[in-house]
Amino acid sequence: MKKKILVTGGSGFIGTNLIDFYKDSSEILNIDIVKPRNKAHLVYWEKVDILELKNLTKKIEEFSPDIIFHMAARTDLEGKTLQAYEANTTGVKNIISAIENVENLEKIIFASSRLVCEIGYEPKDEFDYKPSTIYGESKIIGEKIVRESTALQADWILVRPTSLWGPWFEIPYKNFFTSIKKKLYFHPKGKEIYKKFGFVLNSVYILDAFLKDSSLHSKTVYLSDFKALEVGHWANLISQDFHHKNTKQLPYFLLKAIAVLGDLAKKGGYKNPPLTTFRLNNLVTPMDFNTLEVQNIVGELPFTLRQATKITCTWLKEH
Fold first, then answer.
1. What is the reported pTM?
2. What pLDDT score does 43 carry?
3. CB within 8 A of 300, min separation 6: which ones?
4. How many C-beta atoms lie closer than 10 Å to residue 30's C-beta?
5. Domains (ranges, CATH) in the chain?
6. Distances in Å between the alpha carbon of 64 and those of 5, 12, 68, 101, 106?
7. What CA–CA distance (Å, rounded) separates 239 from 176?
8. Are 116 and 136 a contacting pair, CB within 8 Å?
9. CB of 186 within 8 A of CB of 247?
10. Which residue of 17, 151, 235, 286 has the fewest C-beta atoms within 10 A of its own C-beta?
């Protein structure tokens, strides 16, 4: 008998890839306020706002899921107040309330974010926070709502996606690929930058492995590939696919000057300049997360960096 899998936010990046993974083996419902990115997924979609508790509860109880991936959230960094990120706080409360009478629910996976801590900060444990954005603050509140709930009866896990990329992605990591495609990316000369990013299909594989394991119940883990990539090497893999040659490099002080110009352009109304000070700082800051516990459960991931890059470049060419 097919499992019933509910994906909140299934029209988003991770949600779209989850639906692709499960659509042939499971009964799927995507509840989201926007249409699916993949038009083939319209058949699984119902327009539901997680902030409207009554309708949310009705839809969830009617579907009666065995598994829930709660991916719905506001994820941009443009909001100025916590109220702007109500989907990440009240939305979590509503999901917990809406599943109270779903007796067959086996597991629920809540998506948080690595931005509960600023880039470069290594938390002492899962309760150690250092956000630098209002979005990050909203995700901290969401985590605390989950942990403090007395209503959750099913097995649950909190996952913090790091920087995920791959088919169906959007800003900001799609920009990295498109900048290289347009020959607008220049790597800081002589800098090796190591980051634990995650290819989305590897992340889906990890999430699926969690469904078969109960040892992480009530824990918080990072969702990423297990081996850090070196950004310059990764950029070259992308450039090789598009142009059959490596990316060019520029001295760091020149990139800083270009980033300042990007800041000025953004203040002047240009929505998405190729480089800003914020992006440059993010680029050059090393990023590592402890994924050993997850790695011990999951084992080897299915896609290497080279394979994942090829898949993503092919997807970009087709879309």
1. 0.94
2. 98
3. none
4. 29
5. 4-161 (3.40.50.720), 173-192+230-284 (no CATH)
6. 9, 22, 10, 9, 11
7. 11
8. yes
9. yes
10. 151
